[in-house]
Structures are given as C-alpha cells and as structure tokens.
C-alpha cells in the first residue's frame, strides 16, 4: 500500500505519467506490498521509483562489465582513483572527485576485483550518482571508502526483517553449511531485479533457485542444510535522499494532479514538474 500524507494511492495515480514499463512495475510492487509506504509528497514517491529503477540498471551493467570477483586480500582497483588499504578496501585518493571514482569502476571495469557486499554498495552509489547532480553527490560522499558494508551515513542503508521484497532491494542468501576453506561463500548479497531474478557478484544474474544451487555447491563435505533466502531486505534511505533531487522552485503538485514527466540525459534520470 502507498499513502501520500493521509491519502491512499490507487492504481490509476500514475496513469498519465511517462514512467517506463519497468518503473510502472516498481510502482505496482509498492502498491501490492502488504507493508504501507508513506510519503509526504509525490516527489518522494517518484524519486524512490526512479532510484530503484537505476539500482536495477546499474546492477545489470555491473554484471555485464569486466569486474571480477575477489576476496578482500586479492581485491584490485584503479590506483589513479583509489588507494587499496590493508583490509582490501578502496579509499578515495586525495584530490579525486567521488563521482569520477565511482564512474571509473564502470569505465575501466577490467581494473577492478572485489567481493559481493562491496559490489552492492558500489551499485547503490552509482545509482544515486545517476539521479542527483554531481556536485551534490561529491559533497555528500566526499570521503568514500569501498569496503564490505562500511558505507557513508548519507546512504542511510538499513536492513529490516520481513519478506517484502521489492525490485531494487538488496537481499541475502545464507549458506549455513559453507565450506570453511571458502568462507566467501557463506552467503551471497544480491540486488533483486524483479521477476525472481537477482544479480549476485561472482554468480551473475540468476533466479533464486539457481543462486541457491550455486551456493549449495560451495558447502562443506556431507552438508545437509540447503542455502536459503533470508527474510530481510537492505535498502538505502529513499526519502532522505529524495531531498537532494531538486524540483524547480521547490514546487509541489496537489495530490490529485499528475502533471509530471521524467527525462534522461546520458545515464541519468530526472524529474520535471
């Protein structure tokens, strides 16, 4: 269910919008959710839909790139933009713009190797970069460190229990009897793409069943417990981040109006009112 202030949103709310088919499916998933999603205005709702869409597209782009899977000890980065620290994380070099460093992962993907949690965080940063202006992104994330789930507080990443899986969420497949010789396969962080498809770094774009099958091949000898999807979701703070996507003059539409469109410039998607 979706509410804007105290008003319930119905199927026809976005009937005259120019959202893509994929964005419409994200809207439908929010509508059909047993959870109630409450927004102060249309801008917050539209921002979440568009950012979720960008998260999905970014995950697919990373899956198609030449980035490799590696444990922290063997991680690699482009030293023009990053310094690899003693833990295997990537610290932004002094004098480098965060936006340039994040974009480089997709431009020079063959120079990078990292594990699955870092991949998810990179997807989040890149998707946000594509929906807010570079200056704001660089101000918010001026001291980037890419290492596991160590994230900037402005991402607002939170994990919540429940099975309210929405496209653009990070989900986790747990492997309870993983081989202790390969602890990197104790589980797999994925971006849920919708239609039971997930992107998991090191596994690729697979269905839930295929990801579970891949993890089950990484279990210890004589294991009997199957890998499984944890009932939890990990998300960025969409509402908080929406304030950094500007609307001309701060204009807000009345709740019963639908006079908005979306537009793209390169890989970025913007709202126009």
Automatic annotation (TrEMBL):
Keywords, sorted A to Z: Acyltransferase, Sporulation, Transferase
EC top class, as a word: transferase
GO molecular function: protein-glutamine gamma-glutamyltransferase activity
InterPro entries named in the record: Gln_gamma-glutamylTfrase_bac
UniProt EC number: 2.3.2.13
GO process terms (BP): sporulation resulting in formation of a cellular spore
Name of this chain's protein: Protein-glutamine gamma-glutamyltransferase
Source species: Parageobacillus toebii NBRC 107807
């Amino acid at each position: 269910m979706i509410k804007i202030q105290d008003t319930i949103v119905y199927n026809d709310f976005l009937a005259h919008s120019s959202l893509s088919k994929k964005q419409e499916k994200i809207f439908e998933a929010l509508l059909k959710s047993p959870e109630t999603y409450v927004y102060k205005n249309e801008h917050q709702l539209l921002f979440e839909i568009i950012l979720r869409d960008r998260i999905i597209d970014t995950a697919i782009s990373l899956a198609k790139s030449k980035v490799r899977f590696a444990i922290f000890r063997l991680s690699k980065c482009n030293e023009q933009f990053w310094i690899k620290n003693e833990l295997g994380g990537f610290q932004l070099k002094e004098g480098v713009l965060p936006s340039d460093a994040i974009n480089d992962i997709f431009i020079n993907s063959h120079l990078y190797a990292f594990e699955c949690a870092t991949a998810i965080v990179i997807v989040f940063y890149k998707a946000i970069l594509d929906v807010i202006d570079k200056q704001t992104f660089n101000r918010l994330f001026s001291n980037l460190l890419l290492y596991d789930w160590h994230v900037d507080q402005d991402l607002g990443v939170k994990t919540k229990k429940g099975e309210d899986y929405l496209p653009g969420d990070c989900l986790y497949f747990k492997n309870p009897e993983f081989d202790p010789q390969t602890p990197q396969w104790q589980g797999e962080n994925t971006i849920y793409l919708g239609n039971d498809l997930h992107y998991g770094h090191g596994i690729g774009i697979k269905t839930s069943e295929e990801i579970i099958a891949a993890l089950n091949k990484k279990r210890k000898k004589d294991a009997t417990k199957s890998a499984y999807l944890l009932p939890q979701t990990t998300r960025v703070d969409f509402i908080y981040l929406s304030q950094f996507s500007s609307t001309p003059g701060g204009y807000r539409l009345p709740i019963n109006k639908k006079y908005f469109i979306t537009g793209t410039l390169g890989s970025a998607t913007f709202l126009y009112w």
